[in-house]
Amino acid sequence: MNYLIGLIPALGWGIMPLLATKAGGSEKNQIFGIGAGASIIGILAFIITKPSVSWQAFIFSMVCGAIWSTAQIGQFISFKRMGVSTTVPLSTVFQLVGNSIIGTLWLGEWQGAKALTIGFGALVIVVIGALLTSVTDKNGEEAGKITVGNVLFLLVTTIGYWVYSVFPNVFNKINLGAHSSEGIFLPEVLGILLGALLYLIFTGELKTFKDKEQYLNIIPGLSWGIAAFAYIFAGRGLGTNTAFVLTQLNVIIATFGGILILHEHKSPREMKYTVAGIICIIVGSVLTIFA
């Protein structure tokens, strides 16, 4: 049963980019939809579980959720620039490499020569995987989609994911009052919605509330919210390391979903490199838990 729960985050996070792309609209419509849909799940979960959370933890979690939204906005923009099947593997690698480096330098993880060797060896493998998935045979306008500028944009916006991923460790270092994993889930998703609203305000795009895509994108938001809430129980039932490895299956779902469902064309040669790259990313992700 725990493994079935552990597959829910991979499924939910894997199909979210596909649903959001199908729903259409701009990144403004999409990030609002994610925030609204996830908040619906957060409110229902809070009502059902009745968790404990201090006001300090509530506010801190909202801020982290808002920071996460900046990274997701960057990913939505990158979907349009490079396609889902290219963006998701690159984003996954950026997240894994960044989180691992932060964990090593700031949180004291991967201590000792053996851990460092395995850990950074795994990162080399996932970087190779990212390079393989970005191989293209296209010419002209199509080739222009995978540029240094587009990749760097995705990398810079990924910083929001890095901040979000380390905040549970901050909870352990500072006193934020009583709280549970279920308790901080609602403020996290409300923070995402807050970040989306601030983005609409500062870009002068409140008119997007007239777009039907603004509300269609609530569906992928529900998918994301269910996956995020299920991850709490997956980590509790399977352990953080095993749950994390299972979530990496979302790369497979999103990448090949982009090719098969969104019809993001890849030549036979590109497909070979993509498959090899995905294998490298999965293998590297698994190796990091042994570091």
UniProtKB/TrEMBL annotation:
Its main location: membrane. It comes from Limosilactobacillus gastricus DSM 16045. SUPFAM superfamilies: Multidrug resistance efflux transporter EmrE. GO terms for molecular function: carbohydrate transmembrane transporter activity. The lineage of its organism: Bacteria, Bacillati, Bacillota, Bacilli, Lactobacillales. GO terms for cellular component: plasma membrane. PANTHER family: TRANSMEMBRANE PROTEIN 144. Belongs to the GRP transporter (TC 2.A.7.5) family. It is found in: Cell membrane. This is Sugar transporter. InterPro entries: EmrE-like (IPR037185), Sugar_transport (IPR010651). Keywords: Membrane, Sugar transport, Transmembrane, Transmembrane helix, Transport. The chain crosses the membrane at residues 30-48, 55-77, 115-135, 147-164, 184-203, 215-234, 240-261, 273-290. Pfam families: Sugar_transport (PF06800).
